[in-house]
Design goal:
By secondary structure, the protein is of the alpha/beta class. The chain has helices at about 5-20, 30-35, 55-60, 80-95, 110-115, 135-145, 175-185, 200-205, 230-240, 250-255, 255-260, 275-290, 315-325, 330-350; strands spanning about 20-25, 60-70, 100-105, 120-125, 145-150, 190, 215, 245, 295. Helix 1 (about 5-20) packs across helix 13, helix 1 (about 5-20) runs parallel beside helix 14 (about 330-350) and helix 6 runs parallel beside helix 7.
């Protein structure tokens, strides 16, 4: 597409943000606060040294955020469960401590309520099946506490699913893993395929009866990183109705940075321009379709981000880069939040429904 003037680009961004808020698929602020500030709720207004604070969320026009209730996958069993509950508790307490700024959200309707009251809809996303300690009962209780997506793995395999960054053990999903996907579908908890192997992606798409998401991944065709999504999976999103939410992580979007990151890191890291992220968004649109793209920054999950994307205040700048490339306001609105709202609406009824056990009683 031909580039357009700065004035027209900024007008398109403003129209897009009137149509749909920025809803980011993945932010590790709860973990960053746990590690660097002892989990305190003091001073969230900012400025804070990381990627996120309330001041910058407002500047970034963030209207919805999936807060990752991540914990490392190095502990054992019940320790993962306890730590995940502590992360959920932090988000609940954050919403209680800042009631004029955050609304604890479970549904697409909550996003509309948050917009009408000038608050940020705050969703919960559990990053890694290890948080369940292999217990469907734990999954059902996390859903009862408001968890809206489960990333099937983190960096290591679980007993029932292969990770993108571990030696494959299961060929994707085991029978129990397929049952876990069906239970997620039944509960209305979104199946998140970031962090999983391509075989796991395909296995989940083979059996899910609901749209899936990639909460924070980019495109393998542009940057050959194992955390990215191959084109043959992106093509399947159109039939599934799901969404890939493009991550901003520099090694996911730029091959020079990926080579530096995987090397000895003795030299200064290469500068990654914002345009690389825009390139991945455009590739996802071309391959999966405009109804199947979103934003999944992974802010506070890494130490460095591309130039011009230093924190949550920078979303409008990325939208302006796309608008300069000729993106319409309606396509930008689909990217910022319209598509993930569609996925939420498709699963909200199940999420609000029964959580009694079915084929996975324990």
């Amino acid at each position: 597409m031909a580039r357009i003037s700065e004035t027209r680009a900024l007008e398109a961004v403003e129209r897009a943000l009137e149509l749909a808020p920025v809803i980011d698929g993945h932010n590790d602020w709860p973990w960053e606060t746990r590690i660097t500030r002892g989990g305190t709720l003091e001073g969230l207004e900012g400025p804070l040294p990381g990627d996120t604070d309330l001041l910058r969320l407002r500047r970034g026009r963030v209207g919805g955020q999936f807060w990752s209730v991540f914990v490392e996958d190095e502990s054992k069993g019940a320790d993962h469960v306890a730590q995940t509950l502590e992360q959920i508790d932090w988000v609940h307490r954050m919403a209680e401590a800042y009631p004029e700024d955050f609304l604890l959200a479970r549904s697409a309707a909550d996003v509309e309520t948050a917009r009408a009251t000038d608050r940020i809809a705050s969703f919960l996303g559990a990053e890694g099946g290890h948080s369940l300690a292999d217990s469907p009962a734990v999954l059902r209780m996390l859903a009862a506490l408001g968890v809206r997506y489960l990333t099937l793995t983190h960096n290591r395999n679980t007993a029932w699913a292969d990770s993108a960054t571990d030696e494959p053990r299961h060929g994707g999903l085991t029978d129990r893993g397929r049952a876990m996907v069906r239970e997620l579908n039944r509960l209305g908890v979104l199946v998140d395929l970031s962090h999983v192997s391509p075989a796991t992606m395909h296995a989940a798409l083979d059996i899910t009866d609901s749209p899936v998401i990639f909460s924070h991944s980019s495109c393998r065709a542009l940057t050959d990183h194992p955390r990215n999504v191959p084109d043959d999976v992106l093509v399947r999103l159109a039939g599934n109705g799901g969404v890939i939410m493009i991550a901003f992580v520099p090694q996911f979007v730029d091959d020079d940075y990926r080579h530096w990151f995987d090397g000895d890191r003795l030299d200064a890291p290469p500068v990654v321009p914002m345009a690389r992220v825009a390139d991945h968004i455009e590739h996802a649109r071309e391959t999966a379709g405009v109804r199947h793209i979103g934003l999944g920054s992974d802010f506070d999950g890494y130490d460095e981000f591309p130039e011009g994307l230093s924190g949550v205040d920078c979303f409008p700048d990325l939208l302006a880069e796309l608008a300069r490339r000729g993106w319409s306001a309606s396509d930008l609105a689909a990217l910022t939040g319209g598509n993930v709202l569609r996925v939420l609406r498709a699963t909200d009824v199940r999420f609000a429904g029964t959580r009694s056990p079915t084929e996975l009683p324990r």
